[in-house]
Amino acid sequence: MTLDPDNLAALHFALADRHKSTVGLVVVGNQQVQTQLYLELKNLLPEYQFVDLDFKATPVVSIFHYLQENLPPQVLERKDKVTHLINVFGLDYSFFSYENGEAKPSPLVQQLNMERELIFREIPAIVLIWLGKPAYLTFRRYASDFSDWVSVVFEFGGEKGESYQPDTEQIRNLAEIKIDNTSENHQRIADLQDKLNRLDKGTHTARHRRDEKSLCLLLAQAYTAVGEYTKASEQYALTLRLAEGLQNTGTEIGTIYFYWAENEQHRRQYEIAENYFEKALTYFEKDESKKNLSVIYERLGSLYEYLGELGKAQAFFEKDYKLAEELYASNPRNESLKNGLAVSYEKLGGLYQSQGNLSKAQDFFEKFNQLTEELCASNPRNESLKNGLAISY
User: Which of 28, 352, 373, 375 would you call most buried, defined as having the most Cβ atoms within 10 angstroms of its Cβ?
Assistant: First the structure.
């Protein structure tokens, strides 16, 4: 079983070095995926202490009250940076009640809509809610205020034909629901726009502004997902103004610029993309987030390479590979960091080859091959790794 490396890197990017509370959803295809992803996150996020809560045998009606009453006192202490990551497992079993043998959404699902602000404001930690796909579909439908508001949502599927299923036959049948991603994305845009329209324009509380900012960011990302890049750009501009008004952290503002820059690349507005990547870099350098810096270095190097500015590309690729080596040296058992280092070697090898510096290109391709062979040996079913190795030869 191999996790999607791009999806894993994006999740890592979203969670690393947080200064404020974060609430996220992780949707998994099966139990094996959940276990593997959990172990990967523990390796990738050593800055956090993990607190694991399992509700399989403890049905709950209020997550917020359970967290307040059962978390250790040190988790609830206010700090300058987030120090704890709370994993909430087994909520699938609390999401359904039964009448005449039929599964229906439980009171917890609606309760979450009312608790979203409380969890964010009163629990100074990252709270990750882990769900199987059937429960997530129910969650999206009946707790849409909460699901649209959370900071991060990531899906990790299982092998073809597998799915994560709680034990009851009624819930198992929910897995048969088929979703057209395109229609779902357009429906999501409609739902988010409706929520924005329903916000009280005369209210100017901090909660109202946070809700508006979160909805605008989600709407911008949804527009990017369906290729409506101009509308996405308008929403990113609005999100940035709201974030600056809320005095969000540098990392949060840098993240907005990062996603906005990627959107501008899709629009082929490369000068604007370069400007926004540079702005994101400035904010990430202030926060000294090595993981975020590595991503920015790679994106800027790739952009400059595409534009034919090979000197600038080389400078950023070299920064990326040196930082990737440093990160990997700090945790050599982490396969995601090893893969990131391999990619940085491949990028530099390709650039030196384009410049006609074949001896340097060969050095970096050999390093890439060595790491990729090790990754292939530990992940023999990963075809993308094998294909990358074949191409490099």
Answer: 28
